[in-house]
Amino acid sequence: MDESVVVSPDWLATHLEEPRIRVVDVRDPWEYDGIGHVPGAVSIPFESYRDESDVDRGTLPGPDAFASLLSEVGVTPDDTIVAYDDTHGVFAARFVLTALEYGHDDVRLLDGDYSAWNRAHETTTDAPDPGSAEYGADPLAREESPLVGLEAVEDALERDAVFVDTRERGEFEEARLPGAVRFDWREVVDDETRRLKPEAELEELLSDHGITRGREIVLYCNTARRISHTYVVLRALGYEDVAFYEGSLTEWLANDGEVETGAV
User: Fold this and answer.
1) Which of 35, 81, 128, 208 stands the most exposed, by the fewest C-beta atoms within 10 Å?
2) Which residues fall in a coiled-coil region (predicted)?
3) Which helix (H) or strand (E) holds 13?
4) What secondary structure does DSSP assign to 76-105, as a single string?
């Protein structure tokens, strides 16, 4: 697993005191304040970087809004960010995707979540005083971004791309993109450890679903939250040809896109 994308709790514990390591907690503020958090972590709640009004990039907040969030907690573009939640990483993965899209070079997902961290490492309810910074977002050019829109998805349907639906079975059977395979994002998580399954097991699991390095992969769900986790996992495993349909099924249905229904 590529540590430039996903890091273990032990890795974070070892590097936690380094000045350029900045830990971001994306849980609700009451969890951060009342339950505790990773020492030194700053609070950037999930809802603060999700904006339904951004017509160009779906639910992304926009580069200026995101830059303001990071400036307020003292994060700079040169920092290594490690994000976590307490929901197996799915909300934190959305933060990772957002930061990458807005040009942050080094942002990583904590393998596991707060509960996984709490089993072996210290927590605190003390809030740090990180100061402020002048963060400048530098959004990726369209040709560099993994995000794709409606037209690109329509084109990919004409090719041998594998469309990966990361939702639950009932959602998949109600409506899905033509030819899509269902790969529930939670399949990669070990329920006992709350961390990702071993790399060899992940590779076998993906292959069983037809998700291989030799194929073009297009991810979607309903509103692009769950595919953030799958995208980060694939990136950590070294998959390169992975597209991220930000509009997902919500946009597809709004544009009367063709769907399939029923069990497979």
Assistant:
1) 208
2) none
3) helix 9-15
4) -TTSEEEEE-SSTTHHHHHHHHHHHHTT-S
CATH number of the 6-118 domain: 3.40.250.10
| The model's pTM | 0.94
- The model's pLDDT over 43-83, given as tens digits with 9 standing for 90+, comes to 999 989 887 554 444 578 889 999 999 999 999 999 999 99
- Cα separation of 203 and 200, whole Å? 5
Q: In this structure, what token pair is assigned to residue 117?
A: 């961290």
CATH 3.40.250.10 occupies which residues in the chain?
6-118, 147-254
| Residues 144-201: tens digit of each pLDDT | 999 999 999 999 999 989 999 999 999 999 999 999 999 999 999 999 999 999 999 9
DSSP β-bridge partners for residue 245: 148
Tally of CA atoms within 13 A in the half-sphere of 109 that contains its CB: 33
Spatial CA neighbour of 158 closest among 57, 264, 228, 258: 258
Phi and psi, residue 178, nearest 5°: -55, 130
For residue 173, what are the contacts with CB-CB under 8 A and spacing of at least 6?
261, 262, 263, 264
Q: For domain 147-254, say whether CATH 3.40.250.10 is its number.
A: yes
